[in-house]
């Protein structure tokens, strides 16, 4: 079984650890450990009968709920089979430009999606530890820009002041998959600006914050003309009926949202402080629900050792060419699990 490019591959991890998948503690996928919400489970249980019917091909009710959440018309929203599906259509549009600019290191799926449509790519370096970046190009209208905010894998949150000058690009796609982990007053989302920029596309995930990666659900916000074009490209019924109803439910679950925001900050700061005590590690404190950690020990060796000795899976950064063996990424989990990781990392160095 080949080394995975993404986090969360428990089948691969269990093979290395020599144990069943359910015994692996997964720090490699940045999924909210508090979920799935009880409201999601209740919604599934009460809508099992919908499995014998096709979903609404227009997802009318889901688009309406999302639109109300963001104070938009439903025409500006399209649900998808996770952000991954919607990224494909965004990449198809970006590939029509002379060039798409990416901040480096970049999430590997961006390059994959763009290359699938023979898109030209230009990488611009991000200051990994400070989060500073700059793109200087001429003929911006002929170019596209694809970035994520908060950034993956560093967790840096780019301010609106940083991003707004770049909305002069011909097409701008902003992946806000981890924005929900930030309390609303601190978020730097462009959703409120979407109607001012017909060249702007925003991608949102519901699987990470609400711990629903198995259901595959996300949505895009863009000008209705863009979304009508995407609708012509995609397969019918990309979202199953249970994902549809669960998305409608969790987006309105204020109790779970508040619980997550209350949990994340102290848990992340505690783990950051603990890792900072280990001489071989230099964690970067970002705004998302994960930490990127610089390591003096090759990350793949550390990953293997943790799997065999502790049944703990961390995310190596080999799929980020700029990071390689020098970094690993870990999700923030429960206090008990974070403490267990800290002890395991300390022991792995001895």
Overview of this structure, please?
The protein is α/β, with parallel strands linked by helices and 350 residues long. The mean pLDDT is 95. The protein has helices at 10-17, 38-46, 60-70, 82-94, 108-116, 160-163, 224-233, 241-250, 254-276, 299-310, 335-348, and strands spanning 25-26, 77-80, 99-104, 121-125, 143-148, 171-175, 200-205, 218-221, 281-284, 290-295, 312-313, 315-317, 324-331. The chain has two domains: 10-36 and 255-348, Aspartate Aminotransferase, domain 1 (Alpha-Beta Complex), CATH 3.90.1150.10; 38-252, Aspartate Aminotransferase, domain 2, CATH 3.40.640.
Name some characteristics of this structure.
Aspartate Aminotransferase, domain 2, 350 residues, Aspartate Aminotransferase, domain 1, 2 domains, 7-stranded mixed beta sheet, 4-stranded antiparallel beta sheet, alpha/beta
Summarize, please.
With 350 residues, this protein is α/β, with parallel strands linked by helices. The chain is 35% helix and 17% strand. The chain has two domains: 10-36 and 255-348, Aspartate Aminotransferase, domain 1 (Alpha-Beta Complex), CATH 3.90.1150; 38-252, Aspartate Aminotransferase, domain 2.
Main beta-sheet strand count, sense and barrel state: 7 strands, mixed
Number of domains: 2
* Average of the residue pLDDT scores: 95
Low-confidence stretches: none
Strand order of the largest sheet: 2-8-7-6-5-3-4
Task: Please name the fourth-level CATH homologous superfamily of the largest domain.
Answer: Type I PLP-dependent aspartate aminotransferase-like (Major domain)
Helix content: 25-40%
Number of helices, where a helix is a run of at least 4 consecutive DSSP H or I residues: 11
Distance N to C terminus = 29 Å
**Percent of sequence in beta strands:** 15-25%
The helix/strand class is alpha/beta
What is the tally of beta strands?
A: 13
**Overall CATH architecture of the largest domain:** 3-Layer(aba) Sandwich
Shape: globular
